[in-house]
Amino acid sequence: MDLFNLLDTYDYGGVHFGRDAASGMCCIVAIHDTRLGPAIGGCRFLPYDSERDAVIDALRLARGMTYKGALAGLPHGGGKTVIIRPNRMFDRAAIFRSFGRFIDGLGGRYFTAEDSGTGVEDMEVIRSVTKQVVGTDGGSGDPSPFTALGVRRGIEACVKLKLNRASIEDVHVAVQGVGHVGYHLCRELHAQGASLSVADVDPLKAERAEREFGATVIPIEKIFDVECDVLAPCALGSALNDDTIPRLQASIIAGAANNQLAEPRHGDDLNARGILYAPDYAINAGGLINVALELQDYSVEKATNLTMNVYDTIFEIAERSLASMTPTYRIADVLVEEKLAAVSQNG
User: Fold this and answer.
1) One of 68, 80, 162, 205 is an active-site residue; which one?
2) How far is the C-alpha of 132 from the C-alpha of 104, rounded, in Å?
3) Is residue 104 part of a domain?
4) How far is CA 49 from CA 52, 170, 257, 342, in A?
5) Active-site residue 339, yes or no?
6) Strand partners, 30
7) How many CB atoms lie within 10 A of CB 78?
8) CATH number at residue 8
9) What is the pTM of this model?
10) Which of 30, 125, 128, 346 could be bridged to 58 by S-S, CB 3.0 to 4.6 A?
11) Residue 203: inside a domain, yes or no?
């Protein structure tokens, strides 16, 4: 594996590999940047086709967490963990205890949290062996509602700027993925009067959104073809790629998924088509804001108020983009890199 070339590509940091033969735990902890403070980032527990795929996923996600924290004004860098889900029978609690002991040995440089394939109950297991975890029942709990709140605010900013509409009432939003965050986003949008179409690989999740929010269920392979105002990718990454972008019939892309662009050039493709893209790490920062406050002075009110500010962040990025004809992802990247450069100079 060309690991050091990969580290250079994503401007790293460090990567830590952990293995516990007894439990079968194999983890990759990517710590992208700690100039702003200790790294925070979720823990994924998923199967991967190859170890290389798992490493790249961790590297891309951790870099996104650095950018997310910087843009949200948090005193934290970015990190991410991938635990490769065993393809045999396993003791889940033993795996997460082993992982907890591993990150406890990283000297406070990284705090984990839930992510795809993990939940609050897993964070509680980790907390039994280390303090390097946030988003537990004893802390702020499930961050998904805050992520959804921030995405809803980001959608409102995009709708205001792109469609010149003061609210999202009757705005048609197509949501790809209605799991943890996607479900809460549908709830947020429905409460504001938006019209919903949804798709999910799990038909029961899609049916729940249909039942509770009056959503129209779309086959998962057709969600990118839906004629709508906003497409909200809320599943796994790389949803915006060479196959899906030509099919889009939305004016705005604004969702909760991480790494929505399969490649940076896809942000250029969206811009060329006149589609307003809300950079993922800018719009989905609510969950990170919520758990990061556990390490300061946490309150639901403070977490909510800070998450509401996602509107201003997205509006500024989109406004600059439309004024300069520069893709939004480039605008967001520049804003972050300026913040990180300022820290380096002052340090």
Assistant:
1) 80
2) 6
3) yes
4) 8, 41, 20, 39
5) no
6) 15, 80
7) 28
8) 3.40.50.10860
9) 0.91
10) 30
11) yes
